[in-house]
Structure formats: structure tokens, C-alpha cells
Amino acid sequence: MAGTLVLLTLAAAACDDGGSSGASGGGAEETLTIYSGREEEYVEGLFEDFENAEGIDLEVRYGDSAELAATLAEEGEASPADVFFSQDAGSLGAVAGAGLFAEIDEEVLGSIDERFRSPENLWVGTSGRARVAAYNTEALAAEDMPDSVLDFAEPEWEGRIGFPPTNSSFQAFVAALILLEGEDTATEFLEGLVANEPLLYEDNEATLRAVADGEVEVGLVNHYYLYEVAAEEGDIPVANHFFDGGDPGALVNAAGVGILATTDGPDVARRFVEYVTGEPGQTYFPEATHEYPVAEGFNAPEDLPPLDDIEAPEVDLSDLGGTLEPALELMAEVGLL
Amino acid sequence: MTSAPLGRGRSAGAVARLRGLGPRRPPLALRLSGLAVAALMVVPLVYLVVRAWGGDSGSWELILRGRTVWLALRSAGLAAAVTAGAVALGVPLAWLTTRTDLPGRRAFAVAAALPLVIPSYIGAFAILSALGPRGMLQEMLEGPLGVERLPDISGFFGAWLALMLFTYPYVFLTVAAGIRGLDPSFEDAGRALGRSPWGVFRKITLPLLKPSIAAGGLLVALYTLHDFGAVSLMRFSVFTQAIYLQYRGSFDRTPAAILSLMLAALAVGVLVLEQSARGRARYYRSGSGSKKPLGRLELGRWKLPAVLFCSAVAGVALVLPLSVIGFWLLRGLAAGAPQVAWSAAGASVLVSAAGATVAVGAALPVALLAARHPGPGSVVTERLAYSGYALPGIVVALAFVFMTTSAVPWLYQSLPLVVLAYVVLFLPQAAEPLRAALLQVGPRIEEAGRALGRSRRTVFVRLVAPLAARGALAGAALVFLTAMKELPATLLLRPTGFETLATRVWTGATAGLYSNAAVPAALLIAISTVPLYLVARRVEAEAGGGRP
């Protein structure tokens, strides 16, 4: 009994707290509801800039991109969301495929590289990220790196590589590999990789830290984690290796946004999309997250090779989502998931 | 509680109705409230049936192939192994901390329950960082022995170890509550008949604790079935993984729904097993129950092994994950003081306490029906009530998204909805200890009360409720602790901008900023010790003979 009373007292005490923080967001300002699969850490600065610049109040629900896509599908007509901001093109493609996105004006999209937007103008990229092999510069030199990511399945790399199999960027890479080289090659590659007893990490950052510590010599990650870890740790003996010649290991993927067809503020939603694909967004991402801008006329972060110099494989990002399922099944079969 | 005036006579009819007790028809109010709870619990199942119905034949093919069956077998095997391990840890710990002169038993009682508050992915992560191929243990061995790499513990062993270490408290808490409800006269009788202390424990105490052990074991088995965090970190493919791969890989909710229904069927299988294990035996006291304190056994030369056992469990299940969090905390402090999430802490306590309270309220009719009016209706109500617990959080969350947006949009993304989801997800945690406690309250007590002319309601409030309170308290504590760390349903159903400690941990961890996750994780564990301490103190006070 006493315990229940204590619980209720605690609940009452917490009520005040929860109540006051929940009551924000009133006033006559226009509001826009965003479902964001991108982490708070990486976008809240941009969102604040937008609120200040446009006088629009943003209500942001953070979550996992794939789970938010499923939520949008369940909500259907009743969705309170105006904009979906996704970590990857796969989730955007799923929402587009369910017919939940409204078409975005050609004017807004005009400046965006065609590789990074939906052919039907249903979603648009906001930033690009390249797959790389990050290597420990104390253990390896640039010329030690193989020509293709597929070479990491060779026995000489046994015990020297690490990667995060549960990470969606790695999974998108496997999907691209299936699209480009076929399922047999992908299976052979993954089996070879597993035979090399790789060290598996829970995410990109942990992988990169392991490369920096020399726990593994090479990590298969996205390009910007090097800068993120360096920002926290200072100088680290790690360099990014970009594969050439349209190798699957050089896949460039995009994060992006789409406007929900059910939005009650299409104009405000459009202003948001303009903001993140226009100058403010395209200068924010290179600086804050070390990602590539996707609109024409904006420069890559200084210490990175320009996006045009990366010989990325020819993959339609809209197709990537549809190949994710066989990719995940394959990974589960070889024991990576 | 003051006693009501006696002597207000009841008609002869009231007494006559008491004759022929036994399995009687439950009162209308109980049946109605049981029905209401069942209706809430059926939400995820209705949703899954709606989704599964819309599927084409391709989705069904997916279900029927070998890999799905294989995954179901792996899930069942893991659940069995984890349950056995959790019983092997939880029962001795409960007995040692309540019935013996173990030094530091109060601290050990809190420590034994505390792993419950550690989210399974943090726990699995800690085990991997310590025992992984290049973990802390390997580092220690590398210097003197030159060990460069340890065998990989991930897979079945790692998943089993992590799940056992972070779920055995379910057994510990329900069994500790069960021990509190024991009538010492049974043991006295055993001793009088010349049994050794070990013989008394084995032949008398243990059989009397069967309902509590079964209750805790059931919670562990169902938890293992629905867990995703630990198995995915340990890379042991089970059924939940197939469900997640469908959501992530195909973005198609139909196969995920069909697989989830199969998981619910697997859970029903576990329930049937538990019921047959529990049997039809009666566990209540025959008399009014003695207020005599339960005796404490002197451990003697077993004292050292007992302390070592309790310390070893606390070391791996508690100190290890706490050190990992501590390490993150230090790294965060080195990089600049992280913000303390006080408002998120308040929010966590608010929704978790509300969830615990409502879950106990909802569990009451379910447990009463199961314990007092066994019959087909009660069985169906109970099975339904337990189905939500066997489903992964994401499935229940999406069910609520679908049901509320299409039927009660004003409820969508509100705090009451989060609380309702907690009730659906965790009801068995409240119902199991409650039922175990009710099974220990003999129906004769009620009969006596009613023979004295009291209404069913009065008898319940005055006689049954106080005796069942310890079960309710244990249940509330379990739900509170589990709700504190709940993530998938909280993320999807919360009001926009509403942050709990668990969502803060998630925010930090997904950004790879473990140092940012450390403060809310540490706060989560610190806050959770309060209800645990209260429960443990009650164990101590009652088992020690003093009244609280």
C-alpha cells in the first residue's frame, strides 16, 4: 500500500514537470509537424535556424526512419505529419510507393542533382554520404588499399576488417551490390567476408573508433564518421579510401525529405523543403555534419574530394529500397544479422 | 484499516448462497471488467488480423518456408534455456535474501532486482565489451598470456547469457513475494517431523513456491520471445528478427503481421505449458494464517559460498553494465559537462507510474478470474491479456497507431495512449504476482467473511485486498521498472516533443554519442532503485517478522 502511495505521489510531483513542458507550442505562429528519421544531434541546429528565419514553429518527432515510414503508412489519411525527413532513400521510396507523398514543385527541385531525387518528384535529397573504407594509417598506406571493396573477401584480409552489419548504410551498400553485381556475387562476397572473421560493431562510430585504436586495420563506413570522431578525439591515425571506377564500395546515398499528401499546410511545407534544399541547408550539412551538398553550386567540405570526383556506381536510389529485403535476407543467411 | 461494525444481520439467503461454493460464476462486475480489459488487450491482435488478411499469396509463402519454422524453433529453444537459467539464479537469490542470515541481505536484495532496469541492449553491449573477442578480458589476458583474440561469445551463448542476466529478476521478485506469503506453519510441521533444513526447503518450501516460480518463469519466457535488443546485438537469429527484417527490409506490413500472429501463437503455447506446470494444486493456507515470523536459517559454513554466488551475479548483471555507463559518463564529462535531463526524468516517472497503476488495476480482474473462477471464460481472458506481452513493442505500437488514427483520433499521440500501450505490453507483469498472491489467499477467508454477513465487495476490500497487496506491489514495481526503459511504443505514441529518459538514451546512442546517453541512462537506473528499495524493505520487514 505504502509503495503504491509513493508511486502516486511521485506521479503527482512529475505531473507539474511534464505538464509545463508539454504546454509549449501555443501562440499564433504557424506550425509544421516533421517526422524526422535523422538524429536530433545532426539536424536540430538547422531546424532552429529555420524557425528563427521563417517564424514557423516546428514540431519534430524523432524516430527510426523505417519505423516512421511504417507509422506514416498506418496513419494514412489521419497523419498529423506535414514533412518526412528520412535518413536514407529507402524509407523515402517506401512512403512514396505507398502513395503518401505529394509532388514537389519542379521549381524547388530544379537545382538538385537528378541522382538525389525521385524521378516522380515525390522526394528530394538534402545531403549525400559516400561509402568508404576507412583505414588505419599506421598499419596501412594508401597504396595498400585494394581496387575494389570486393577484394576484402580475399583471405589476406583475415582478421583485419570491421563493419556495422545492423547499420542501414551498410545494408544499403549490400542492396546496391545485389543491384550492380547480382545476388551470386553478393553472396560470394559476404561469405568471403564472414570467413575472414571480421569484427562486427554496433554502429559506424564504434567501427571508426576501432580503426583509430588499431583494433582493426580497415572499417567499412560512411565518409563523415572520420571527421566526427576526430572532432571529439583530436588527431586520429585514420584516412578515408574512396573506391574508383563505379565500384559498389563507393555508393553515394542521400538523406532527404518529402511532403505528405495529407498536409494541412502545403505552403509552409514547401518553404521548409526550399530551406533545406536551398542555401541554408546546403551550407549547413557540409559544415555541421561533413556531408555532401546535393544542390548545384555548393562546395563539398574542404577536406573532402568533390562529389563529382567520386566515381560512384550507377545506382538509382529509388530502386535501392526494393532490394533491401533480399539484402537483409542474404545477410541473415550468412550470419551477419 | 479500521474494522466495520459487526452484527448487521444478513438474510438467510445470503448464507444459503454460500453453500455449494467451489467454482462459482464470477460476479457481473468482475465479468464486465474482465471483458473490458480483454477488449483493450485484443487491440494488437485485431490489428494483426486486419493486416494479415490484406496479404497476397506471396506473404503466406514466406511463412511456410523452412527458415520461418527454423526461427520459431530457435525462439522456443532460447526461451526455454533462458527461463531455466533465470529460475536457477532467481530462486536461490530470493531464498538467500529473505530466509537466511546472509550478510548484507538487504543490499543484495536490491542488487538482485536491479538488473531489471538495464535495457537489454545496454546489457548485451556491456557483456560484449567485456567478454567480446577484443574486449576487456582479452586485454587483461593479452599482456601475461599473449591472447590476441577470444572466441566469439555472440550467437546462442551470448544471447542466452544476456537475456538470463537481465530477466532473472522477474523470477527473483515474484518468488521473493511468494516467500513472504508463505505460512510458516508448513515449514514448522516439516521440521517437527525431523526434516533437515535442506529437506524442508526441497520438500515443503519449493513446492509451495511453485506458483511464484511459474509466474516469474512465464514472464521470462514471454520476454525472451519478444526481445529484439539483446538477440540482435548478439546476432542470434530468432523470430523477432524476421519481423524486424520485414519492417526494415520490405516496408511491407503484411508479412510482418503474419509473423507476429505466429509469435502470439507461440506465446499461447508457452501459456499452456505454464498452466500444465502449475497444475490444479492449491497453495493457500488452511487456517487464518499465522502471524508468526518466518524463521531465518543460519547459513553456517555455507555463508561464504552464498555471498560469493550473490556477488558474482551482481557483478556480471549489475556492476558490469554500470561500469560501461560509468565509462561513457567519464568520457562525456571529459568532453564537456553533459546536460542533466531532469524534465525527461520527471516524464519517465510520470508515465511509468501511471502505467504501473493502471496495469495493476487492469490486472486485478484478470488475476481474480484466473485464481478464483477458473473456467473457459477466465482462460480466454487470461490468454488474451498475455498476448500483448509476447509481441515486439513495435508491433503493439503500430497497432495503436492504426487503431487510434482510424477510430479515436483525439487519443493519438497523447500520454493516456502511451499509458494504455504500457498496459497492453506489460499487463502480465502485474497480473502474475497478483495471481500468485491470490492463490495463496485461501477462499475460506472469503467464505468466513461472507458468512459473517459481509457483502462480496466488503469481503474483497477488507480481507482479500490487503492480502493481495503484496502481489499488487510487486506487480506495480515490475511494470514501473519495465516501463521506465520501454522505447519503441514510447517513441511512436508519445506526444510530439515528449521526452523520457529512455528516449534520451536512444537519442544519444543512435547518434553514436554514448557519452550523451550516459547521463539519462545513469539517471534511469538511479530513479529505478527507489521503488526497488521500497519493495526490498518490505521483504526485509515482513520476512524479519516486524510489521512495516
Main attributes of the structure:
heterodimer; A: 337 residues; alpha/beta; 10 strands; globular; B: 548 residues; mainly alpha; 25 helices; disordered N terminus
Brief sketch in words of this structure:
Chain A is α/β, with parallel strands linked by helices and 337 residues long. Chain A is built from 12 helices and 10 strands. The N and C termini of chain A lie far apart (46 Å).
Low-confidence stretches of chain B: 1-22, 286-290, 543-548
| Helix content range of chain B | over 70%
The overall pLDDT of chain B, averaged over residues, is 80
Number of helices of chain B: 25
Structural class assignment of chain B: mainly alpha
Instruction: Please summarize the sheet with the most strands of chain B.
Output: none
Count of β-strands of chain B? 0
Distance between the termini of chain B: 14 Å
Rg of chain A, Cα atoms, Å: 22 Å
* Strand content range of chain A: 15-25%
Topology:
The complex is a heterodimer of chains A (337) and B (548).
Chain A (H helix, E strand, L loop, with lengths): L1 H21 L7 E7 L3 H15 L1 E7 L2 H11 L7 E4 L2 H9 L3 E2 L3 H4 L14 E13 L24 E3 L4 H14 L1 H13 L3 E2 L3 H9 L5 E5 L2 H9 L4 E4 L10 E9 L5 H12 L1 H10 L28 H17 L4
Parallel strand pairs in A: 1-2, 1-3, 6-7, 6-8
Antiparallel strand pairs in A: 3-10, 4-10, 5-8, 5-9, 5-10
Helix pairs in contact in A: 3-4, 4-12, 6-7, 6-12, 8-9
Chain B lengths: L11 H7 L9 H14 L1 H11 L3 H8 L1 H34 L5 H9 L6 H12 L4 H10 L10 H25 L3 H9 L4 H12 L1 H17 L2 H5 L5 H12 L2 H26 L24 H32 L7 H31 L3 H15 L2 H15 L7 H26 L2 H9 L4 H29 L3 H6 L7 H10 L3 H30 L5
